[in-house]
Task: structure prediction
Amino acid sequence: MPDTATLNDRPPTLWRYTEALPLSEPPDLSMGEGMTPLLGIPGQPGLALKADYLMPTGSFKDRGAALLVALARELNVTRMVADSSGNAGAAIAAYATRAGIACDVYVPAATSTGKLAQLLAYGATVHRIEGSREDTAAAAATAADKPGTFYASHVYNPFFLHGTKTYVFELWEQLGGQLPGTLVLPVGNGTLVLGAYLGCTELLEQRLIDRLPVIVAVQAAACAPLARAFNDGFTAPASVTAEATIAEGIAIAAPARGYQVLAAVRETAGKLVTVTDDQIRAAHKALARDGLYVEPTAAASWAAVSTGVADIPATPGPRLRAVVPLCGSGLKSAH
Result:
């Protein structure tokens, strides 16, 4: 990590952490991604919300997409393929068009119209796939096998996690060189959980924090392979059949990095919990009444906190008890 004096002289984007990233900032690619606001919550001292829905394309996925497209440009890629429930695809498509790279995005057929419109506006070629989220990923992987194609996978490509780890770096800066006692994070494929864990371990290794924050990861009750595995003591995701949920962004029945998510949560003495669609709807409405309009998936973590499901422990001293991300804009969703 750069020292504080160096950081103070840099623009408020995730590229301010260039020494801690696997790539330097490429010219003419950044849209100002990063350093999203940290917001207090009326009547909730000790808790804060990080407004990642204010990223350039409306979700935290811009963190990883910026790194993936920077890598693609460095490799002189001419075509990218991505699979997504919407937000990752939109982020990758936006940065790809800035980089002058053609982009095909494979999405589930049930993806919300707002997210589809965004993809098309960026000039992506959109492929709607019937079946499960896993069917969408399989179709994209097949397409990515074509010569000259870069598979811009937010799940498999480690560069994406080096983008999402900047969520934690920003918190560390915004909180004056410390992290909250608990990070409450939504989890589907686990890109934010694993990125946050990576960032925390790097800060700990450099002695910039004295302990890892507890990670409480939140799933929709209708699709919770990781929460079920955690509660049953498994090291790999449980076998589940995904049911319909308004939290489409985390409805992943077979997360490819699930074993890593489970290990990371356990390493921090954390846990995995679930929230129902009714609890998500209530949290979504409460956030909107506080002026924060997010998509339902982005309200899942706040649902876990506001209902007490997350059961956040007290934190000694002035340290914040917990920070909750608001991951995606409500303008993308019809809910």
Summary: The chain has twelve helices and ten strands. Residues 191-205 form the longest helix (15 residues).
